[in-house]
Design a protein that fits this description.
Layout: H1 8-16, E1 21-25, E2 33-37, E3 40-41, E4 46-51, H2 55-62, E5 65-71, E6 80-91, H3 94-108, H4 114-124, E7 130-135, E8 139-143
């Protein structure tokens, strides 16, 4: 099988397409916990978010070591990028929260659908309900 990524530019292009990431962290069970998350990659930081009161956030405050895995879609040539490091959990300034949601929501949901549009508008107006999960990776791995 040919190598999918031959340059950082190809990796960055892969990461700009709409893809879910899997956030893997040390949960309450003996095995790692993995959950799907929306993400934004700017070439330096993986930005994610979570509900402030989620059990995921409580666990990340105790142990910030994570891996974030982004993979190919079904039917697309096999490929993946993993980011490893420590996530920083912090509050959002209202303008930063709205900028992130305005950037990522259209990648993941069809906002012409009223249900999705209404949900996102509710999120936009409630930055205090969410926390930022920012990862400046110590290691970036890729393959396929």
């Amino acid at each position: 099988m040919a190598k999918r990524f031959n340059s950082q530019q190809e990796i960055d292009s892969f990461l700009q397409e709409p893809r879910l990431a899997i956030l893997m962290y040390n949960g309450s069970r003996p095995a790692p916990t993995g959950v799907p998350v929306w993400f934004d990659w700017d070439g330096k930081t993986v930005r994610m978010f979570a509900a402030r009161t989620s059990s995921k956030v409580a666990r990340l405050r105790e142990d910030a070591n994570v891996s974030v895995l982004v993979t190919n879609r079904v039917g697309e040539p096999e490929a993946w990028v993993a980011f490893d490091g420590r996530v920083v959990v912090s509050d959002y300034a209202a303008e930063d929260w709205r900028a992130l949601i305005d950037r990522v929501a259209p990648r993941f949901w069809d906002l012409s659908e009223p249900g999705y549009a209404n949900e996102i508008e509710g999120w936009r107006m409630s930055p205090e309900a969410f926390v930022s999960l920012d990862l400046v990776p110590e290691t970036i791995r890729s393959g396929a």
